[in-house]
Every structure is written in C-alpha cells, then in structure tokens.
Design goal:
The protein is of the alpha+beta class. The chain has a single domain, classed as START domain (Alpha-D-Glucose-1,6-Bisphosphate, Chain A, domain 4). Helices cover about 15% and strands about 50% of the residues. The protein has a six-stranded antiparallel sheet with strand order 1-2-3-4-5-6, with helices on one face. The two termini are about 20 Å apart. The mean pLDDT is about 90. InterPro entries: Bet_v_I/MLP (IPR000916), MLP-like_ligand-binding (IPR051761), START-like_dom_sf (IPR023393). Pfam families: Bet_v_1.
C-alpha cells in the first residue's frame, strides 16, 4: 500500500492485532533504509485506537522513549486518522520527530488512496 515508504512488515512474536505482539518494520525515511521494532501496548476497539511502543531500531538512536498512538474518528463514511507521538530525546540537541511525522502522514495518504474506490 505504500511501497515507496514501507519495505516490509514482519510479525516476530504473538498474533497480528493483539496486545503484546512484536512487529518489525523495514522502511525508508529521509532517503535511508531504517528499522523499527514495536510492541503493541494497547488496543481500544471502542475508541478505535492502538498504541505502539518502539523497543528497537533507528528511532531509539535519537529517543530514549518513543510511543506511537493511532486513533481513528469515524463520522458516517468518513474517517479521520490522528497519529500522536510521545517521546523523550536522548539530549536537547535532538530535533523533534517532524520528518517522521511527515513520513507517517505520507503512509496514511497511500493507505487512503489504496482504499478509495477506483473511478473510471
């Protein structure tokens, strides 16, 4: 769905879509191949949200803690996706993860394009 951004996603532990599952993402960010190992910390089906904790990979070179929460608001046939980062920098010289947020937005746009009905 986002081949220019995501190279691959593998389940390393647990079952897809369950709390405690460990997922490894191979992706391209800022023109470089990167890896992120995440554990699903929480799923709230009623609120349509999932929280991932980064436990390995490139993000932890700059951040001692990195949580990603994805929340979907549904209004009829429209869905609004909100991605929130909670992070701690390894030091004050590290930039905020704005380019990673842009990356996430681009992936979401690709997913949206993939799921939109094709018109002739």
């Amino acid at each position: 769905m986002s081949p220019g951004n995501i190279k691959g996603v593998d389940l390393h532990e647990g079952e897809w879509g369950t709390v405690g599952s460990v997922i490894v993402w191979d992706y391209f960010h800022d023109g470089k191949p990167k890896v992120a190992k995440e554990v699903i910390e929480a799923i709230d089906e009623e609120k349509k949200s999932v929280c991932f904790k980064v436990i390995g990979g490139d993000l932890l070179e700059a951040y001692t803690k990195f949580l990603i929460t994805v929340h979907v608001d549904t209004n009829g046939e429209e869905n609004v996706v909100t991605v929130t980062f909670h992070y701690e920098k390894v030091n004050e010289n590290i930039e905020d993860p704005e380019s990673f947020m842009e990356f996430c937005l681009n992936v979401n746009k690709d997913i949206e394009t993939h799921h939109l009905p094709k018109t002739n």
